[in-house]
Amino acid sequence: MDEIDLKSIKAIIFDRDGTINIPMPAVPNTKNTGYVLSISEFKFLPNVLDGLSSLYKKGFKLHVFTQQKAVGKGLITEEELNNIHDHMREELDGKAGVKLGSILYCPHIGSDCDCTKPKPGMILEILKENNLKPHEVLVIGDTIRDIPDKSLTDEGMQFIAVPNPDSGASSNKLDKKDWQDKGYYCVDDLLELSKLLYKPSQKQKLLPRIRN
Ligand SMILES: [Mg+2]
Ligand SMILES: [Zn+2]
After folding, report:
1. From the CA of 65, which ligand is nearest?
2. Torsion from C-alpha of 2, 182, 185, 179, nearest 10 degrees
3. Which of 2, 17, 114, 181 is catalytic?
4. Is residue 15 among the annotated active site residues?
5. pLDDT tens, residue order, the chain (212 aa)
6. For residue 3, what are the CA distances in angstroms to 43, 124, 185?
7. How far does residue 23's CA lie from ligand 1's centre (Å)?
8. Domain 3-208 falls in which CATH fold?
């Protein structure tokens, strides 16, 4: 079996809803197709604090890219979204000792912008802000829209799925078996992910290579 080696990974870019925090269910008969709209609705998934703490202590830089169409739909202001992200940063710092790096979001509806997933705009911006090369980055997400663009995986960017049965937008959602059938490596949560990675530049475990 083809394998990938994670030894060049310096930074990890995480999807937010369904990967870091519990995804919200859609509200029937409204524009809210499943968004966190307030700090009180933002709750970490199990093992996220421990997993991110472990990865951060090992020396990985941790960034976030997230689709937030709730802004474009007028359900939440950009300021309110930034407040939720400030809260996420503070909780991660206070409870897990994690200093998050970049948080990029796409607030737009439709697909005309360059930042909507699965377009590479947000990831390219994180690479630029943090002076990273594609092969130094591992992307983690719960839906197929989180998979990096082929232009990035061709340059060595890696992806690992963390399937979440509660994630919205069912058309983009796969269960563990579907991910594996497509050739993607899966973890159950971020604590399991943290056990796959040693320190940056050390030899890493070999994982099955993804097809893309
Ligand atoms: Mg997600
Ligand atoms: Zn956008």
Report:
1. 1
2. -170
3. 17
4. yes
5. 345 567 889 999 999 999 999 999 888 888 888 899 999 999 999 999 999 999 999 999 999 999 999 999 999 999 999 999 999 999 999 999 999 999 999 999 988 999 999 999 999 999 999 999 999 999 999 999 999 999 999 999 999 999 988 876 556 778 888 888 888 889 999 999 999 887 665 555 556 555 44
6. 35, 25, 10
7. 7
8. Rossmann fold (3.40.50)
